[in-house]
Amino acid sequence: MIEVEGLAFAYPDGRQVLFGVDLAIARGERVAVLGPNGAGKTTLMLHLNGILTPGAGSVRVDGVPVTAPNMRDVRRRVGLVFQDPDDQLFMPTVGQDVAFGPANLGVRGADLAERVREALAAVGLDEFADRAPHHLSLGERRRAAVATVLAMRPDVLVLDEPSANLDPAGRRELAEVLTGLDLTLLMVTHDLPYALQLCPRSVILDGGVIAVDGATVDLLADEALLAAHRLELPFGFDPRYSIAKSTGLMP
């Protein structure tokens, strides 16, 4: 579903961030992108639907090159959810925010209303269409931002730090939404337990390249590996125990 080959990128000030990223994600996979601050995680994410353009290398989505002639199709296929939901919620009501994307694609009338209803139901905000976004909690706003993307009926959902600053209930509610989606999912996160909960596979991006690619539980159980890439688990968190408990293998 996603093919990144030799992706390199430098910002206009000359700062090189990506130095040749290779990453392949199959349809339906759930993959976490981990790494220290400044590793290029968000920069990589912004290449997946053409917000940034590679200095070298290529990005393909379901075989379609992420280039200017294909941008309309790519941006329908790949939905980005930013860390700050206020970057995506700008209309007077939640329903209008959710309708904005498909309406720009020419969806109208009953079909548009169904898109809005379907997307809000998927994130547990069925009754929120007429609410003002700024009256919602952070967790509700983040789920509303997910709904604005789901209304486009994408094939790939890319999230930047989805659990950041959420309280435990908001974190759980968002996880329940994400686990219920039948999509290819790529999640940039510093929240290692969240990566373990949602993504069977993780990659560590460091120094502008993919340094490690493997099963999330194996990566998180390797203390030396985490330390080498400035990653830390919460105190007392045991990833193997957490997996065993969640699968019913341990009381």
TrEMBL record:
Its main location: membrane. One of its GO terms (cellular component) is ATP-binding cassette (ABC) transporter complex. PROSITE patterns: ABC_TRANSPORTER_1, ABC_TRANSPORTER_2. The keyword Membrane applies. Residues 2-232 form the ABC transporter domain. GO terms for biological process: cobalt ion transport. Keywords: ATP-binding, Cell membrane, Membrane, Nucleotide-binding, Translocase, Transport. InterPro entries: AAA+_ATPase, ABC_transporter-like_ATP-bd, ABC_transporter-like_CS, ABC_transpr_CbiO/EcfA_su, Co_trans_ATP-bd, ECF_ABC_transporter_ATP-bd, P-loop_NTPase. It is a peripheral membrane protein. One of its GO terms (molecular function) is ATP hydrolysis activity. It is found in: Cell membrane. Belongs to the ABC transporter superfamily. Part of an ABC transporter complex. Responsible for energy coupling to the transport system. This is ABC transporter ATP-binding protein. It comes from Parafrankia soli.
